[in-house]
Amino acid sequence: MIMNLRGITKEYVDGLDDIFESKFTENLQNDSMMIENYETKETISYKTPPDFFTSVGEWPTVSDLHCSYCDLIIGGFPFPEIEKIVSIEPFKAQTMKRYFCDALCGRSFIDREYDGQKKNDKVKFLKIIYDKHLRYECASIINDEKNREKVRQALSISRVINIPNAPDKTQMKKFSGDMGITTEEYRELKEHVKKENKIGCYAFA
Questions:
Q1: For the chain, N or C: smaller number of CB within 10 Å?
Q2: Same domain assignment for residues 19 and 73
Q3: Host H or E run for residue 184
Q4: Same structural domain for residues 82 and 175?
């Protein structure tokens, strides 16, 4: 059809084919270079924690995975979502391959995704992990003789404490645009919630 257009010759069309082929090859080469450069600069490992949680001491203390609720890089201890408790003594729990940057995000995810008895079980499992992490994270405070009474009271309620929800993640710019808050401001907001509700080491303040 293109050959019937006035002024268009076969030689012109063949020339266009050569140009397109040349540009296509050039773009492929550029894409390959970009991919190679990206892979060279990639330093994130995204290492998956074990399938089973047994103790905080045998669990990763840092993680570059993204939180399954707020989507920020976890950075520290990855709180696992527990599917079921396999045994109590010794403790062993099967994880769900979902991780959170703290108990607050874990609670928000559970409230969003589950209801009924399933939700109750998930919250109970989260509190168990929270309690174990609390004793590990705040060991220096717990082992200080000066804090004995305060520690005793805090630990007595750590497994029944009402873990609050994380602030709404859509407040962040990455979800709501220019009018939102920064990721750092969101983290600070969560710390404020923890302090107000005496979560983590704030329980001993």
A1: N
A2: no
A3: helix 183-196
A4: yes
